[in-house]
Amino acid sequence: VEYAPAGGDGGALVRAMVELRPSNEVTRAALATVLGFRLFPARSGLAEDRSPEITTVAESPAKTSPVGHQKSSSKSTNLPSSPDAIDVVPSTLERRESHQPTRWDIPDAPSKALPMVETSPLAATGEGIVTPLLKETWQRSIIYTAMATESEGSEIDTDRLVETMAVMSEVEVLPYRKRSTLRKGGDVLIDSGPGMQPFTHDSQALARLLQRTMPADSIRILYFEGTPEKAGPRGRRTWIPYMPPTSKPVLLVTDLGQSRRLVPGGAGPQEWLEFAALLRGAGCRPLVLTPYGSWLPDELRTAFPVAEWDRSTTAGTVRRLLDAYAAARLR
Amino acid sequence: MNTLSYRKVFDPREVDRDPAMEAGAEPTDEQLYVFANDNDKDTTGEQMVLAINAAIVTQRPLLIYGPPGSGKSSLAPNIARILGIPFHSHVVTSRTEVRDLLWRFDAVRRLSDARAGGGNDRVGSRRTGGGVRDDKEYIERGVLWDAFDTPRSGRQGNTDARSDEPSSVVLLDEIDKADPDLPNGLLVPLGSHSFPGPNGRMIKPAANPPLVVITSNNERELSAPFLRRCITLTLKEPTEDHLVKVAKARFEKSGVPEDEKSDLDLYGKIAYFVVNVSKTAEKHGLRQPSTAEYLDAVRSCKRLGILPEGDAWMLLSRAVLIKSDART
């Protein structure tokens, strides 16, 4: 038997201690563990040993973006407004990461008592990534919004039923209220081309999160390089022509070829426009998640709903993008 | 099971068997539970019991993770049996909605009654179709309403521990199959132990709230707010010793002297086979046999007189434990 961290709740701990009256230290520690607290041994003297910069905790997570070698020596981590602002083409791209608080950055408890630190179940979602590109607390709802579809639930839509009966029409099929669901699943296409190399770990973390959020048998995660007209599972060397799933969401994690000015490879706008038409023809609802959002030409923004792959993106942003895309298709 | 010391509301025996069982009969999953798990030498089953007690006194749902067949679902009816309280259960699917667990109004049946009748009968002050009955007869109560509405019963006596006992045990099985809406929709009913019923009337427990036991195969991650409200417990794969203990408890016939040594030898050999198959299957990402399948193998061997060796055993183990297509 072991206990998964569930996030501690001080009230529940107090209640359990009062009601169960643990009579020894081992039982008290076991009870705290059961209630989601992780116990660390007291670390006397460690605070004095640490240098001030280690204990500094970033006030807000920095925006992370692909950064080429810029002309100036600016240390800004923001993406230049356009590729033209970069006049020295780098040999490789890298993803910068701000210093984030770690377990050892948490100030020592003033007393020698065992400090009890709440543990977050979300900490496990981004293995290998200190700062996920999407905000940890929002990424599940962003994925839900991107991949959910409307389908009939089990509740009768009485408004529609009354409407039918009011005009004396025969009720042939009972109308059910529509609800958002992940049941239908969808495709995720991850670009593993050179422009997305700095985000390999982010893509893998995102794929893991998608697999843990979506029904296992309904999601298909495929990889491609350049253009997703040919794609395949991770690790496959020969990719096959991609067939979009009929009337399902398709999430594209890609630079849409925008890194071509920095590193060779990647499809051009025309190929992406053709791919957008392919998805439209299959009745798919695409969403592009890209770290290169500010570089995209208008024609690609019109063809795809494009969400920035950074911490400013919310489920609301994605909802608005998808609604606007649906409205544009109706026009 | 003596390291942890506290006031136990729920205090099972290491191998807890229903005393009301018919002598000589094989117990069902609801009549027997082996709380000891030798996988963790330091804790055995006592941390499991502690988690159950913590869930009872904090009135939080007990969320149980673990591989298929590790005893997640059978724990809940055994808690109810040991505490002597009613048991309710609902198996969650991808189509389950929160209202399936609370209540729903059967509008289809009411519409059907109205169209079939066509008269001018009255229910109270309202005129209805001929076949229509009172609205409350079209309300279908979900498992949580049933659990909240359970009067306090439990074991006889009025000790200190009994006052904390839940009114019933509710099992919500395989919650990870549901859309994320479902656990999120349960935050309020499970947090406040109340939910609005028909006409806005709040449905609350008549006595202590029920103990809600939720199982998950961890196929899908649950939301952080939901996890925060749960006491979590992870059951591990059973060891050889644990499997033997389960088989011994399961097939032991009270008062009937058995050829105990040969039986134990059989349980041990099959357990060894199961654990090794599990290790190989895990390495290759294949399905691992469960405790229930181990018991099927033991039962088959005992009844059919097959020893765990030779051709008959190879065919039996493929059919009962491995279950892969013989062509693959």
Question: What does this protein look like?
Answer:
The complex is a heterodimer of chains A (331) and B (328). Chain A is an alpha/beta fold. Chain A is built from ten helices and 13 strands. In chain A, the strands form five sheets. In chain A, strands 8-7-11-12-13 form a five-stranded parallel beta sheet, sandwiched between helices. A two-stranded antiparallel ribbon of chain A has the order 1-4. In chain A, strands 2-3 form a two-stranded antiparallel sheet. Chain A is flat, with a radius of gyration of 25 Å. The N terminus of chain A is likely disordered. The mean pLDDT of chain B is 84. In chain B, a hairpin with a 5-residue loop joins strand 10 and strand 11. Chain B is built from twelve helices and 13 strands. With 328 residues, chain B is an alpha/beta fold. In chain B, the strands form five sheets. In chain B, strands 4-9-12-3-13 form a five-stranded parallel beta sheet. In chain B, strands 1-2 form a two-stranded antiparallel sheet. Chain B is globular. Chains A and B meet through helix 1, helix 2, helix 5, strand 5 and strand 6 of A and helix 1, helix 4, helix 8 and strand 13 of B.
Low-confidence stretches of chain B: none
The level of helicity of chain A is 25-40%
Give the terminus-to-terminus CA distance of chain A.
58 Å
Strand content of chain A: 15-25%
Bin the helical content of chain B.
Answer: 25-40%
Oligomer class: heterodimer
Q: For the largest beta sheet of chain A, what order do the strands appear in spatially?
A: 8-7-11-12-13
List segments of chain A where confidence is low: pLDDT < 50 over at least 5 consecutive residues.
Answer: 1-6, 44-65, 67-77, 98-127
- Tell me the strand percentage band of chain B: 5-15%
The separation of the N and C termini of chain B measures 45 Å
How many beta-strand segments of chain B?
13
- Mean pLDDT of chain A, to the nearest integer, reads 75
